[in-house]
């Protein structure tokens, strides 16, 4: 609400042109030297206790005379005092609010500190429990480890107590024989029978004589002129036949994880093929602690068969049992199952050796077919006047072909190797 004009001012109420800023100004003349350009007047209607600063230009003061009524000045002074008191009250209220805010901040800081302390205490209370749980888990793991180690030790001890059966025994002597009595006193001997393969190219031939001195004479002459017909000859070169012979070797025996050796059985009514089929069928059944058979092979000795399984555990089961009573048809026989030892040559020493009966011929031209050339060579080297003698075999390789000569020890065992034939 707009303040009412002070008493005695009704007559001095300004015209609309004299109303400035919603206040009331008295119109009149100012005393000499008392003209003012700024007046403090009340605010517009609806804005109580608010003053406005009205600036009057010098032209306005020069054109008209303005004067403020004394009652108006008193009223304005009172309003300013009331406004000042209201502002001081607001300042006090703001100061109280600031103090309360500072107190609230301090209280919040204290509560935050207490909360942090509580969290720290909860953590300290929780950590010992965590450590205790970890310690208990560690103790349980250690106990389980000790139990497993004890069980493993018992299994190893049981395995030692139940060693698998040994392979079938054969008495072997690794030394040379010195006489007939020593040979007769031995139940069995170990011998190495070499079977050496020698490659031959086209235009070569091997001539084996019955007597070694004949071969030495042919080698001594070196070149020979062989007559093919009445008017044609060919020249060939004779050389000694040198072979690499094994002198010593080392054999490493390894136990096969998937193979077993069957021995000690007798089924005389069955052929070899029938026996192998029946044994494969018998040991492929689960009721006989067998499994799927990959291969079966019969060794040279009587009653020795090698079984190869697809899985390692099958061989271990059979070896652990050791003895079987096998019935095939109407025949029943005991059978021993033992580990199969696979031998591998780890070291082999070879030494060059000359075959005393055989001569190597080279430089043979391609002038006759194979059969006629073999006959021509045999006829030539049988003639004593050409240094030859009785010929045992002639092996010829025509030009453009190749072959492998196989040398084996002759029956009797003491003689050196002789030519046994060609593998084309």
Folded structure, characterized:
There is one protein chain. The chain is of the alpha+beta class and 424 residues long. 35% of the residues lie in helices and 32% in strands. The chain contains 7 helices and 15 strands. The strands form 4 sheets. Strands 6, 7, 8, 9, 10, 11, 12 and 13 form an 8-stranded antiparallel beta sheet that branches. The protein has a 3-stranded antiparallel beta sheet with strand order 5-14-15, with no helix packed on it. Strand 14 and strand 15 (417-423) form a beta hairpin. The longest helix is centred in the first third of the chain and has 92 residues, at 70-161. It is elongated. The model is unreliable at 1-66 and 173-179 (pLDDT under 50).
- The number of distinct β-strands equals 15
Mean pLDDT: 75
Large-scale geometry = elongated
Work out the strand percent. 25-35%
